[in-house]
Structure formats: structure tokens, C-alpha cells
Amino acid sequence: MSNLGHQPLSPLDGRYRAATQELGEYFSEAALNRARVSVEIEWLITLCAEGVAGSTPLPAKTIESLRGVAKNFGEKEIAQIATTEAVTKHEENKDQPFFLFYALVQPHAEMYAPEEYMEKYRGKYLPESSYVGTDGGPNFRKHAYGSQPEAHAAFAAMVDVMDDDIGDLVAKLEELGIADDTLIIFTSDNGPHQEGGHDPDYFNSNGGLRGQKRDLYEGGIRVPMIAWWPGHIAPGTTTDHISAFWDVLPTISEIIGQPTPEDTDGVSFLPTLLG
Predict the structure, then answer these.
(1) What is the structure's pLDDT at 47?
(2) Which stretch of DSSP H or E encloses residue 17?
(3) Percent composition of the chain: helix, strand, coil (DSSP 3-state, to 5)
(4) Residue 40 burial (CB < 10 Å; 0-12/13-18/19+)?
(5) Helix axis angle, 14-22 to 29-50, nearest 10°
(6) Residues 6+ away with beta carbon under 8 Å from 233
(7) Which of 24, 99, 139, 208 could covalently link to 8 via disulfide, CB atoms 3.0 to 4.6 Å apart?
């Protein structure tokens, strides 16, 4: 998500590397292994919003929140903090260009959703899938997923939660009057997983393609992408253009009129976005 005019951070950026290394001072190795991407998003939001260097410590309030998450790590807490923080940063930066990399937890394992979402789908996806995980002991909340007796309902509920969270962000952009100036890209980093009780075959999660997450077949690496940019991208258009994540940085660089770093093989897909 980018309000155009601010050069985004990427893994090629030295500040990104410094930021991720510095996180190790605040979190245990187990916590970082459990949700490294979810934690990095908090740090990246801070970098983009305040323009600080990687050597600058996180604000005390953010450190306090993230330490609390790391202590009793769960998908619910990470999702709530990430969404709240993202909405807050929109409010703080509505009058200046910004870049937000928002890494959603859902629908990754572990298969969990709040009860108000679970009750909407309970009993609708039968026969259910029951998963016996780790609910105590030394690996609890570290290297293993918790049990979920209603994994099908949980998966559907998690997608619903994700939809609501994204809707909250879009609603905030519209409320602030900056939706038409903001490019939103929604995509995934891999094909469907089968951890924690999720059954990708039941939901046809790979769309009939061969393979799943970690496979090099299309089902493991081919994912959809949605781009929304009012006034620039024609609604309802589709394309068969093949692209990859290393093409994102050149694309955004072209949009904001900045040179593309030399150490990337990426190619801008802006012409495809604009039709």
C-alpha cells in the first residue's frame, strides 16, 4: 500500500537489514522464528512513518506492545496490533507520502479466529477437519501449532477476519480523503499451506493447480494479485502478465519517479497496471 511519492523500503535497502537485525535485541529466537514477518511489519511501519535510520531504537510504546505479543505469542494478538498500527499510521501520515507493507497473519496456521467469526461458519463445512497440535509443554507457542477441532470453520473464519481488516484500512483511506491517491496491491507469498489442520484440497485452495506451499509447481508459486488505484487502473480488468515479487520495487520506483536499484533483476509492471 503506497501513497505515492515516498520511496519504499525493500530487502535491498540497508535500513531494512539493519532494522530486522535490531529486532533480535527485543525478542527471543523462538518468537522471531514464529512470526518474523509479522514483527518486521511493525518496525517497517515505524521506519516509513518517521523516516528513522535502522540504528534508531523503536519507540518505547511500540517496544512495549511487541514485547507483550512475544511473551504470549498468538495469531490473534499479532493481527490486532498490526491492523491497529496500520490504521493509526494512515491517520498520522495522511498529508504526506507513505509506504505501508502490511503482512497479514490470516489465513496462515495456527488455525484460529475469534469466536464471533467462528460461530458464523461452525457446522457449514462438513465433514470437519480436526487437528491435534501442541497445547502445552516446552514447544507451546514456539515451534508448534495449537489444536483446532474445527479447522474448516476456522479457515473460513480467518478469511473473513482478513476481509474485515482490509476493509478497515480501505475505509480509513476513504475517510481521510486519500483513497484516490493510494495504490493498494494485495497478493500472497506462496500457494496454500496444509499446516495446523488446514485442508487445501477441501477448499480447492490452489485453484486446481498442481502443488502447494514449498512446491515449485504452479500450485506452490503461482498466486493471484489484486491492484486497486482509482483513476489509474480500470475497474474489472484482468491480465495474464507473469510477474514476481522482485518486480515490485522497480514498479513502485517507476511510479514515484525514482531510479531502480542496480542490484535487482526486477522489471516494472506499471505498463500492465495502466493498461
Answers:
(1) 42
(2) helix 14-22
(3) 45, 5, 50
(4) middle
(5) 140
(6) 227, 273, 274, 275
(7) 99
Q: Outline where DSSP puts E strands in the chain.
A: 2-3, 98-99, 182-187, 225-228
Q: What's the rounded Cα separation, in Å, for the pair 116 and 157?
A: 9
Residue type, 204: N
Cell of 123: 457446522
Q: Is 128 helix (H, G, I), strand (E, B) or coil?
A: coil
104-113, 190-199, 212-221: which has the minimum mean pLDDT? 104-113
Q: Which pTM value belongs to this model?
A: 0.69
Tell me how many degrees the CA angle 73-1-274 measures, rounded to the nearest 5: 150
All three cell numbers of 120, joined, read 458464523
- Mean of pLDDT over the chain: 74
Helix ranges (H only) for 222-269 are 248-255
Dihedral (Cα; 141, 147, 153, 155), 10-degree rounding: 40
Q: Look at residues 237, 222, 224, 223 and name the one whose alpha carbon lies nearest to residue 273.
A: 237
pLDDT tens digits for range 133-147: 988 887 776 667 889
Rounded CA-CA distance 21/11 in Å is: 12
CA 273/CA 164 separation, integer angstroms = 25
Nearest in space to 242 (alpha carbons), one of 214, 267, 213, 209? 267
Q: Which residue has the cell 508448534?
A: 144
